[in-house]
Design brief:
Layout (H helix, E strand, L loop, with lengths): L3 E5 L4 H10 L5 E6 L16 E4 L8 H5 L4 E4 L13 H20 L3 E5 L28 H18 L4 E6 L1 E3 L9 H8 L5 E2 L3 E6 H14 L5 E4 L2 E4 H12 L6 E2 L2 H14 L11 H7 L2 E2 L4 H7 L6 H14 L5
Parallel strand pairs: 1-2, 1-4, 2-3, 4-5, 5-6, 6-10, 7-9, 8-12, 9-13
Antiparallel strand pairs: 9-11
Length: 331
């Protein structure tokens, strides 16, 4: 039976790939956008979707958007890993989630899928990957983004207790074609342009956006109510990840490891000189602090219950790099 589906965050990286996949089904796809949203990432599917105007931070705009909707994919969120205060984080990631949960409950939505983040799962002690049962311990790093994603999951649990059927997915570090805003793609661009002369000592779990979008749809169909599913792939050190990017892009390998204590000194020197000397925007202390930890995850639950695909991280880096190159976006 044809379902009426609403997607929030459909102009973002994960959301847009999700919309493209949903648009090829028989379902009736509605995408929540703001009047000033950039719709570039939805090119090619505009004739197969319905745009609904609203804003997850404005609760009163969501009643019309959720009316008659069977399923909601809530992928709207702000990813800000910088070290400046960003009040929008709470407004979008927490209040926005509360608003869409509330509107979905009121509208009698049958199921909501919440796109969370691995930062809501936790940080490894050592190199042993974490699974969905991990106790959140991100407070040892002062990262507001992680805190808002964790609070949002608590709100989802509250909505489940009120009777809303919800599933949570936690995508890892997402690469791939179509990353027009240079989310993870910024790393590829800056390594290629030799703006990263050093690498942090931590590691990360890498996944391709196509696998994320597919698995998000599988979670909507097969995921268990109230459960979370980590969507991840290869666990690699930043040194390994940088080597992969260098090998694929032809940039020289990065040879200098930079411990966090040394990064703090270097950053204060650069700040005093008021110059970045061509160093990547990614070099802010909160991001470097996170990158000095191991964010390794075990995705076996998604493999087992959702039939998630696996592929080597090199494939994802290559498809992202070639996509940027084809569009002359790397300079």
């Amino acid at each position: 039976m044809k379902k009426k589906i609403l997607v929030t965050g459909g102009t973002g990286f994960i959301g847009s790939r999700l919309v493209h996949k949903l648009a090829s089904t028989a379902d009736d796809i509605h995408v929540l956008v703001r009047k000033n949203s950039d719709l570039t990432s939805l090119e090619g599917v505009r004739d197969r979707i319905t745009l609904v105007y609203g804003d997850i931070t404005k609760r009163e705009t969501l009643d019309i958007a959720t009316a008659g909707i069977d399923q909601v994919y809530h992928s709207a969120g702000l990813t800000y890993m910088g070290d400046k205060r960003n009040p929008l984080l709470h407004a979008i990631n927490v209040d926005g989630t509360i608003n869409i949960l509330d509107a979905s409950l009121q509208a009698g939505v049958k199921r909501l899928l919440h796109v969370s983040s691995i930062t809501a799962v936790g940080i490894c002690n050592g190199k042993r990957p974490l699974d969905e049962s991990a106790t959140w311990n991100f407070e040892r790093i002062n990262l507001e983004y992680a805190r808002t994603k964790q609070i949002a999951e608590q709100e989802v649990a509250r909505a489940v207790n009120k009777g809303l059927d919800c599933v949570i997915v936690n995508p890892a570090y997402v690469f791939g074609a179509g990353d027009i805003n240079f989310n993870a793609g910024r790393l590829i661009k800056d390594v290629y342009n030799r703006k990263i002369p050093f690498y942090p000592l931590g590691g990360v779990c890498v996944i391709d956006v196509e696998i994320v979008a597919e698995t998000v749809m599988a979670a909507m169909e097969k995921g268990r109510c109230g459960e979370r599913y980590i969507i991840g792939g290869d666990n690699v050190s930043y040194k390994q990840l940088a080597d992969t990017i260098c090998d694929i892009s032809g940039a020289p390998r990065i040879l200098l490891p930079l411990p966090f204590w040394m990064a703090k000194i270097l950053k204060s020197i650069l700040d005093m000189k008021k110059t970045r000397n061509g160093i990547s925007k990614l070099f802010n202390l909160s991001m470097f602090r996170v990158a000095s930890e191991n964010l390794y995850y075990d995705s076996s639950k998604a493999l087992r219950e959702l039939g998630m695909r696996q592929e080597p991280h090199e494939k994802s880096i290559r498809s992202a790099f070639e996509w940027y190159q084809d569009r002359n976006m790397l300079h």
